Amino acid sequence: MDKRVQSIKWLYLTVFLIPVLSMAQEKEPKKEKETKIDEVVLVGYTKVSKKDVTNAVSSVKGEALKDMPSTNAAEAIQGRLAGVQVSLSEGAPGADVDIVVRGGNSITQSNAPLYIVDGIQMDNALTILSPKEIESIEVLKDASSTSIFGSRGANGVVLITTKGGRKRAKTTINYNGFVGVRKIQNKINVLDPYQYALYQYELYYKNGVESDMTAFNLRYGTFDQLSKYQSVKKVDWQDKVFGREAFNFTHNISITGGSDNSAFSLTLNNVQEDGVMIGSSFKRNMANFRYDYDVSKKLNIGLNARYSRQTIYGAGTSASGSQSTNRLRNAIRYQPFEGGSTVNVDEFDPLFADQTNLVNPVLLANNEIKENGRQDLMLNGTLEYKISKDFTFRSVVGYVQRDQTVNQFSGTVTTLARQNNDQPVVFLSNTQSRKITNTNTLNYKKTFGDHKLDFLVGQETVRTDGESTSFNIKWFPESVSAQEAFANIQLASPPAGMVQDAPRTAREVDRLASFFGRANYIYKNKYIATVSMRTDGSSVFKPGANQWGYFPAASLAWKITEENFLKDNNSITELKLRVGFGQSGNNRIGSFLYDTFFTSSSDYGYAFGTSVTPGATTGNIMANPNVKWETATSQNAGLDFGFFKGRLYGTLDVYQTDTKDLLLLAKIPQTTGYEYQYQNSGSSQNKGIELALGGTIINKENFTWKIDGNISSNKNTIKSLGNNASSSSNFYYYPSGWQNNLFDFLVQVGKPVGTYWGYVTAGRYEVSDFDYNSTTQAYTLKSGIASSAAVANGAKPIQPGDLKLQDTNGDGVIDSNDMTDLGSAQPKFYGGFSQTFRYKNWDMSMLFNFSIGNKVYNANKIEYTTQYLYKDNNMLAEVADRWKWFDAAGNKVTDPTALAALNANTTMWTPPAGAYFLHSYAIEDGSFLRLNNLTIGYSLPKGSLDAIGVKNLRLYATVNNLFTITGYSGFDPEANTRRNPLTPGVDYSAYPRSRFILSGIDITF
C-alpha cells in the first residue's frame, strides 16, 4: 500500500476513531444533553422526528455551520455528509461546486441533485445562500425518500431550510463580518533560465540544421555564452500572474424578531473577494426577507423574498474547450527570464507568438477581460390552513428568475484577435430563465391507542421558460478598451465584403405536472411503515404513454430499543433498523427533442439574385419520439444507533441503485443526415456502504470535545450501453476534450464511469536497445524491441532516450491496440470529519475531508513535458533530468559507450516530438487528506456588555485550506475541469487553489 494512503488512514484513526472508541471509559458528565433524540428533519413535504425516519437521510444543522466563516454554503458542508461528495472544480473566485450523491447515476447527463429551498425548486441553490442564513440542510439519498419528488430525484434531493424569526421574541440584530487574504498554495516547478537555455540548445543543435543553429545563436548566444544564464534572474510567471495577495471582505447582517402572532427576519450579505490571478475577483450582494403571520388560530401565511446579484470577473485559466483555451500554458511555458526577444518583455512580440504559440502571461491576462454577471430572484408565499384537528391544507407558490450576462473582451494580443485581423473581439450573451411552481398538499394526522397515522396527498406544477441570445462581434478598433467595446458595439466595423456573425438564439420551454401521496403508519412506537407514490408528466417527452413516469416507494423501520429486552438498557439508548425500496426519475434533456425543428439564419442562406436569402437547418440532433423517463431503482438497508445516553451515535447504510433507460446523447450513423440522437440506451449501477459516527468525548462544565465523521465507499459499474455500442464489443471511446481528437476515456460495460484509456509508460529507450553503425553514426532498434515512433514520436525514428511505451499485447508493434485501462477517477473511500473544542469562553473547530484510491488525470503533465511543434517553450523542472545528447562542452555525443555514461544518472526521457497522447505517467494517485477549516474563537462572558446593549460578542480567526497531505504533483488533487460526467478527474489548466487566512467578529444586539 502507498505510504501516503497509509498515513491518511492512520491519521484518520488517530483523530477520529480512537477518541470515539475511548469515550466509553469517560465518566458520566454531570449534565447530559440528549439533543439528538428530539431532532426534527425535513423529509418530503413535511417534517419528521428523526427517531421516526425510515429513509436514508444525511443532515447538517445551521448550528454546525455558524462558527465556520465562508462565502460559499457548499464549501461549508464539504466532508460533513455521508455519501455526499462536495468538491470545488478549481480555485477561481465563484468557481462551480460539484455535489454528487452516492456516486451519481447518469452517464452523460447532469448528476446534480434536485435543490429545494423553503419548498421552492432551484438550480445550484447553494451558490446564492450564505452559510449564516441556513437553518438546516437535509440530503435525501435513497429512492424511498426521493421518489416523493419523482422528477429529477434520481440524483438525490437537497432540502434547505433558511432561518426565520421567532414569535414573541424581541428584535435582535446580528452582525458577522470578516476580512481575510488569499495566497496561492502550490506552484508547478519549471526549468530555470540556465536549464531552459541548455534544453533549447539541444533542440536547435540536435539535428545539425544550419539555419536552426544560427537562429539559436542569434537569440540565446553561442554555447560558451550560455553560462550567463546561470546569473540571469529567473522570472516566476506563476507568481506574477497568480501571486498577488487577494483580499476578501464579507459582511452578514441579520435582523429577527416577532410579536404574538408574527415573526420576521431580514438577512443581508455582501462579499467582495479578489482572486489570486490578475484581473479576477468576485462580488455578491444578497438580501432575504421572511415573514410569517398567524391570521387566526387556523390560518397561517408566510412570505419570502430573496434577491442575489453577483459578478465574477476574470477570464480564468481555462474553459471546457480544447488546448486553445488554456491560459495557464503561458505562465508555465513562457521563457523564464526577461529579454531575449526583439522587443521589451512587456510588449507584444507577434513573431515570438507565432513561433511559440505563447504570449507574455501578464499581457495576456490584461488583454482578456470577462464579466460573468448573474441575478437571482426568488419569491414564494405559503398558506397553511388547519381544516380540523387532524386535517391541514398547505399551499406554496413560488417564482424563481435568473438573469445571466457574459461580457468577454479579447484584446489584440489574444489568439482570437490575431485570427481576426489583429483586431479585438467581443462576446456578449444574455440568458433569462423563469420558473413558476405551485404545490398543494392535504395532510391527515391521527393518533389513537398504539396507532399513529400520517397521510399526505398532493399536487404540484412547475412551469419553466427561458431565452438566450449571444453575439460574437469582431473588428473593433485596436485602441478600444473593454468597457468601451461592451457599451458601444457599433464601434465594430467589418472590412469591405465582410459581415458580422449572426446572433445565436435559443429558447427553453418545460412543463411538469405531478400528483403524489404518502402514508406513514407507526405501531406501538416500534414499527414504522411508509409508502409513497408519485406520477410526473413532463413536456420534454412526446405526449402519450412516454410522457408520464410512475415512481413508487416503500420503507420499514424497527425501533429495537423500544422492545422490552432493550428498553431499560442504559448503554444502548438508540437502535433502529431501516429497509427501503423505491424508484425516482430523471428528465434532464432539452425540450421537444421528440420532434424536428428548423432554425432560420443567414448562416445557412443561399444566393438569390444580388442578395442572400436566409435558409433553415435542423441541426445535428435527430428527433426521437420514443425517448422516455430515465428511472433509478434504489434498495437501502440502514442501522441508526446511539450509546451512553446519546454520547455516541451513528448511522450505517448499505445500498444499491440500478438506473435503466439512461438518457444518452448517442452518436448515430451519419447516413441518417444527423450526428447524434437522444436515446434511452443502457443502464448503470451504484452500490456502496456509508458509516457516520459522532459523539461527545468529553463533556465537563468548562471543557467539551465533540467529534463527527463519516466514511463512504461507492462502486459504480456500467451494466449496459444499449444501442450506443455494438453487442459484440459493449464499449466505446470518449474524448476528454483538452486536446482535439484524443479519445482518452473508456466507456465499457463492467467498468466504472471515468475510466482512463491510454498507454502504459515503460520508461525510455536505452543505448542497449539499439544497434549502432559507427560509419553513419545511426542508431537502429534491435530486432524484437517494439517501437513507439508512430504513437510518441510523430513517426520519426526512435533514438536512445526517447519515451518508451509498453507493448501490452506482445505483437511487437506499439499502436492503439496497446492502449489499456489506466484506472478510474472513482475513489475507494471518501468522507470527512470535524472536531469541536470549547474551553470556558474559547472555542476551536477543525473540518477535514479526504479521498482514498481515486486517480487524477494530470493533463498538464502531458503538455508540459511534450515538445510537440514548438521550440522556445519552457518545461516542467523534471525535464532537467532528461536524456542528454551534448556533453559539458556543448559537443554532441554519438559513441554508444560515451552516450550511456553521459546518461548514467539521468532518468527522464527526451520530451516527445509527436502529438499529445495519454500514458500512465500522467495518471497519479489523487488520495488526499485536507484540513479545510481551522477556526479559533473567543466569546466575551455573557452579560459583560449588557450595559451597552450587546448580548454576545465573539472574535475569531480562521484558516481555510490550511494543508493537504497528498502525493499529487499538480495544483490540487480535487481539480475537475471538464464539466462532463463521462470525463471526471481531469486536471487541465485549473485555476490554482489558494489558502485563505481571515479574522472576524460576530456581535448580537
Automatic annotation (TrEMBL):
Domain of life, per the record?
Bacteria
| Any single GO CC term annotated in Swiss-Prot or TrEMBL for this entry | cell outer membrane
Q: Which UniProt keywords apply?
A: Cell outer membrane, Ion transport, Iron, Iron transport, Membrane, Receptor, TonB box, Transmembrane, Transmembrane beta strand, Transport
Its subcellular locations are:
Cell outer membrane
Gene3D superfamilies found in the cross-reference section: TonB-dependent receptor, beta-barrel domain (2.40.170.20), TonB-dependent receptor, plug domain (2.170.130.10)
User: Where does the record place the TonB-dependent receptor plug domain?
Assistant: 50-157
**Predominant subcellular localization, coarse grouping:** membrane
Q: Where would I find the TonB-dependent receptor-like beta-barrel domain in this sequence?
A: 323-781
Q: What's the protein's topology in the membrane?
A: Multi-pass membrane protein
Q: Which InterPro entries match?
A: Beta-barrel_TonB, Beta-barrel_TonB_sf, EF_Hand_1_Ca_BS, Plug_dom, Plug_dom_sf, TonB-dep_OMP_SusC/RagA, TonB-dep_OMP_SusC/RagA_CS, TonB-dep_rcpt-like
Pfam families reported for this sequence: Plug, TonB_dep_Rec_b-barrel
Q: Which GO terms describe its biological process?
A: iron ion transport
* Family note: Belongs to the TonB-dependent receptor family.
Protein known as: TonB-dependent receptor SusC
Q: Which organism is it from?
A: Chryseobacterium potabilaquae
